[in-house]
């Protein structure tokens, strides 16, 4: 019973194994082998390993949300984290300072970044799976936004000037949408438009786009690079996240002077995006004329096939609007008990940009209603993803 019986570690077998450790603690080498096998075969992006006063707590991030993965007896805590450190080539005797390394699962070839950090009850470790990506979300259709949002985005991307600004909080998939948008332009134009990107860093290679990476240390900043790039006769520019006034100003200037610009920005909603550009010192009329479309977005978990009929009046109450029927999460082996599997994009869009009174053509509430009506997700997940109640008819 020292090694996994097969090369297929299921969640049920894993839980049974953990339960057996409560009766009799086992080998850390075996536990780590099984853990790496389970995680490599799952859709988890991260594993958190936390020593607490009573045990070693394991959690994994599925579709962007942390879920419990079981507990390991306290007596095994140090050796489990120690084993991960050995595999990642870290200094095992150094427990007072954070360390970072890389490990490869022997069973599956799956690669992980390992990061350790000292805490009150010992070192905690986080494994980040380097193989998982938003694969399957390459085109605008695959993002799962509704037809009306899709049409609005396509119209804006067919234009020759103006900025398409994609906003959302960290981890909301802005870059994924920007890549999907630029792929749409490549496809629409069939190679007939000069398309360039300035990225920080280049994350995905897109055929048909001249991609460049900015470098702060050598002074090749976004604003500096853009000044030279406009002399390269570009028609479409994909620019990395706007983080400062200089970049915002150069970006919008390019959008005003003959290029279609696709860029991203940290803001919660379409209103907030426009107001923040003005707050950064961009003249309101420049914002109004340069910005063609604002897309504000969140990644929302899709209900697994095991979903059950929900209680509309109860479940949807926090949303602030009525729904006739809704589905809710259940939990099965295929979704690892979370009730959700995979993610889609929920977006609100605004094309009529007027600082301080932006009209949101398709608000989050519309997108939310569509996702509930079609049973794609639950009211509870929308409240989680938005972090606030979308106002109906706003
Ligand atoms: Zn399920």
Walk me through the structure.
This protein is an alpha/beta fold. The chain folds into 2 domains: 11-129, Beta-Lactamase (2-Layer Sandwich), CATH 3.30.450; 140-386, 3-Layer(aba) Sandwich (Rossmann fold). Helix content is 32%, strand content 26%. It is built from 13 helices and 15 strands. The protein has helices spanning 11-23, 28-40, 77-87, 140-143, 147-157, 174-189, 222-229, 245-256, 270-279, 284-290, 312-315, 364-373, 379-386; strands spanning 46-51, 55-62, 65-73, 99-104, 111-119, 122-129, 162-168, 195-199, 210-213, 236-242, 260-266, 291-303, 308-309, 327-328, 340-350. A hairpin with a 2-residue loop joins β2 (55-62) and β3. Residues 1-6 and 390-394 have low confidence and may be disordered. It binds zinc ion (ZN). Zinc ion is lined by residues 304, 306, 331-332, 334-335, 339.
- Largest beta sheet: what is the strand line-up? 9-8-10-11-7-12-15
Please tell me what the overall shape is.
globular
Helical/strand content category: alpha/beta
CATH architecture descriptor name of the largest domain: 3-Layer(aba) Sandwich
Question: Could you give the distance between the termini?
Answer: 60 Å
Named CATH topology of the largest domain? Rossmann fold
The total count of strands amounts to 15
Amount of beta strand:
25-35%
Helix-strand string: HHEEEHEEEHHEHEEHEHEHHEEHEEHH
Ligands in the model, by name, code or SMILES, are: zinc ion
- Poorly predicted sequence stretches spanning 5 or more consecutive residues: 1-6, 390-394
Main beta sheet, described? Answer: 7 strands, mixed
Mean pLDDT: 89
Number of domains: 2
Specify the helix fraction band: 25-40%
Rg over alpha carbons: 24 Å
């Amino acid at each position: 019973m020292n090694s996994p019986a097969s090369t297929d570690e299921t969640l049920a077998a894993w839980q049974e194994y953990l339960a057996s450790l409560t009766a009799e603690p086992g080998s850390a080498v075996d536990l780590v082998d099984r853990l790496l096998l389970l995680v490599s075969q799952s859709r988890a992006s991260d594993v958190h390993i936390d020593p607490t006063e009573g045990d070693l707590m394991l959690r994994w991030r599925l579709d962007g949300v942390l879920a419990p993965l079981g507990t390991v007896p306290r007596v095994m805590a140090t050796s489990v984290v120690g084993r991960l450190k050995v595999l990642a080539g870290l200094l095992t005797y150094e427990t007072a300072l954070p360390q970072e390394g890389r490990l490869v699962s022997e069973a599956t070839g799956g690669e992980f970044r390992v990061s350790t950090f000292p805490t009150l009850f010992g070192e905690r470790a986080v494994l980040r799976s380097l193989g998982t990506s938003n694969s399957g979300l390459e085109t605008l259709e695959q993002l799962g936004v509704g037809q009306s949002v899709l049409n609005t985005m396509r119209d804006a991307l067919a234009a020759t000037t103006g900025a398409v600004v994609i906003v959302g909080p960290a981890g909301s998939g802005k870059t994924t949408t920007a890549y999907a948008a630029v792929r749409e332009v490549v496809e629409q134009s069939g190679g007939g438009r000069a398309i360039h990107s300035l990225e920080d860093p280049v994350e995905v290679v897109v055929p048909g786009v001249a991609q460049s990476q900015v470098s702060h240390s050598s002074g090749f900043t976004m604003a500096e690079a853009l000044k030279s790039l406009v002399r390269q006769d570009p028609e479409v520019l994909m620019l990395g996240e706007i983080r400062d006034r200089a970049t915002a100003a150069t970006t919008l200037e390019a959008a005003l002077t003959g290029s279609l610009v696709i860029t991203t920005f940290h803001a919660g909603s379409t209103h907030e995006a426009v107001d923040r550009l003005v707050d950064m010192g961009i003249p309101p009329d420049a914002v109004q004329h340069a910005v063609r479309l604002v897309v504000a977005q969140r990644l929302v978990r899709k209900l697994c096939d095991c979903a059950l009929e929900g209680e509309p009046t109860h479940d949807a109450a926090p949303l602030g609007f009525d729904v006739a029927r809704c589905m809710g999460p259940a939990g099965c082996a295929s979704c690892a008990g979370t009730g959700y599997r995979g993610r889609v994009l929920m977006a609100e869009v605004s094309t009529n940009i007027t600082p301080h009174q932006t009209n949101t053509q398709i608000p989050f509430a519309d997108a939310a209603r569509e996702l509930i009506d079609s049973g794609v997700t639950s009211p509870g997940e929308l409240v989680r993803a938005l972090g606030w109640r979308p106002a109906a008819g706003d």
